[in-house]
Amino acid sequence: MTKKKSEIWEWTKALVIAVALAAVIRYFFFAPIVVDGLSMMPTLHDQDRMIVNKLNYKIGEPKRFDIIVFHAPENKDYIKRIIGLPGDTVEYKDDTLYINGRPYEEPYLDEYKKQVIDGPLTDPFTLEEKIGEKTVPEGHLFVMGDNRRFSKDSRHIGAVSMEKVLGNTSIVYWPPEDFHIVK
């Protein structure tokens, strides 16, 4: 009887440790997220499942063009691309992104730009027109969805506080046939 109790106790301990470890990993390091909507097309598709790396921005700085997940104002998590970093000026004209006065290529938009026939993919704007500031404020990011005509992003909700960022994401793991690392 003692041997059976000991074996049950060992299994119980192992199960509790496994559950606790999984909870710690999910809460502090990695978490799954489901893409909800079309705002990141063609890069990400509705219902893609991805892994959010929560650790990256706890120990490092965000990088321009990273795809991040953040808490949005309407109690939802959004997935968008970092366009402007703190201190940057951001402007769009003639369907070209300008950061600090320098034009930037956005190869992830090439597919959509070819399809657009009724004007630019991204309407022209300046940062000041969208968020009322000449530069991205310290501790904030300017983010945009890749599906520029159908994305609710910093052009609508303002700059995103770094405190709201959950982490970055680059691995689509579901559906299995679409498994890939996003660039």
UniProtKB/TrEMBL annotation:
Q: Which NCBIfam families match?
A: sigpep_I_bact (TIGR02227)
Please state the Enzyme Commission number of this protein.
3.4.21.89
Mind telling me which Pfam families this protein's record contains? Answer: Peptidase_S26
An MF annotation (GO) of this entry: signal peptidase activity
The protein here is known as Signal peptidase I
Which family is annotated? Belongs to the peptidase S26 family.
Ordered alphabetically, the record's keywords are: Cell membrane, Hydrolase, Membrane, Protease, Transmembrane, Transmembrane helix
* GO CC terms: plasma membrane
Quote the subcellular location field of this record: Cell membrane; Membrane
- Provide the topology term for how it sits in the membrane: Single-pass type II membrane protein
The positions flagged as active site in the entry are 39, 80
Name the principal localization, coarsely classed.
Answer: membrane
Quote the CDD domains the UniProt record gives.
Answer: S26_SPase_I
Return the InterPro entries for the record. Answer: LexA/Signal_pep-like_sf (IPR036286), Pept_S26A_signal_pept_1 (IPR000223), Pept_S26A_signal_pept_1_CS (IPR019758), Pept_S26A_signal_pept_1_Lys-AS (IPR019757), Pept_S26A_signal_pept_1_Ser-AS (IPR019756), Peptidase_S26 (IPR019533)
Q: What gene, per UniProt, encodes this protein?
A: sipS_1
Q: State the source organism's domain of life.
A: Bacteria
Q: Which PROSITE patterns match?
A: SPASE_I_1 (PS00501), SPASE_I_2 (PS00760), SPASE_I_3 (PS00761)
| Example GO biological process | signal peptide processing
Segment forming the signal sequence: none
According to UniProt, the reaction catalysed is:
Cleavage of hydrophobic, N-terminal signal or leader sequences from secreted and periplasmic proteins
